[in-house]
Amino acid sequence: MNACIGCQTCSLVCSTLLGQHSLSESAIYIKTKGGLQSPYVCVVCVACKENIACLEACRTGALRARPGGGVLFDKSKCISCRLCVKACAIGAVQYSEKLDQPVICRHCGTCTRFCPHQCLWMEEVEEIAEVVEAIEAEALETSKTSSPTPETTHPKEGEAKS
Fold first, then answer.
1. Is residue 66 part of a domain?
2. How far is CA 67 from the centre of its chain?
3. Count: domains in the chain
4. pLDDT digits (tens, 9 = 90+) for 14-57
5. Does the reported pTM lie above 0.85?
6. Residue 101 forms beta bridges with which residues?
């Protein structure tokens, strides 16, 4: 993702496939790690093969395991409870108010084909748990480094700001 310029083409292409034309109606989104000059990160379903949290949270059967990892969504069974959104550890399941349903990557690969800088690619990962742990650790580290501390916002008299 080092070549990513944050153009959001991937998100717009995805939302167009969903019949929408909005960054908020996409199964993939790009954000910064924090600050104006930090690199971008891509938040998208990593196609869990085991312990699929969103699937396990769904009480109605609207989500079912997809061969190869990830889930398939059946809108007719969805009650819009958003438990799948809350269950995803990496925040890859979004909820669309406009569509009144969760938006989860279908792993169609369209976003990868439209990325002007070839920042995105699809590959099968055997140990998905390691990927999820790495993403969670990076998110935790980002939240620690991007949040101001009382020491930096209100230094004691005589101490310099960091």
1. no
2. 21
3. 1
4. 999 999 988 889 999 999 877 777 789 999 999 998 899 999 99
5. no
6. 96
